[in-house]
Amino acid sequence: MTFQTALSFALPFGLAVAALGSALGLGKAVAAAMDAMGRQPEAAGKIQTGMIIGCALIEALTIYALVAFFILQGRIA
């Protein structure tokens, strides 16, 4: 198995794992924030701000994986 073959199998798999992890993390973070806002409506603004910052960081990791995918994709051919 050559380097290019291994990379062509590993890149889509790695991107899929990153996307799946990001989706699960976002779902769990938003669900927990909605639950907290339901229990403490007076703190909804602070909870929502924290949730948005957390979601942005989770999305940033997914974007890093996508950028790494495009960078390494050029080494396959």
What does this structure look like?
- There is one protein chain.
- The protein is mainly α and 77 residues long.
- 87% of the residues lie in helices and 0% in strands.
- The chain is built from two helices and no strands.
- It is elongated and about 60 Å long.
- The two termini are 15 Å apart.
- The mean pLDDT is 93.
Describe how the helices and strands are arranged.
Layout: H1 3-39, H2 44-73
Tell me the β content. Answer: under 5%
Structural class: mainly alpha
Distance between the termini: 15 Å
* Assembly classification: single chain
Average pLDDT rating? 93
Radius of gyration: 18 Å
Short recap of the structure:
This protein has 77 residues and is an all-alpha fold.
Annotation keywords:
77 residues; mainly alpha; 2 helices
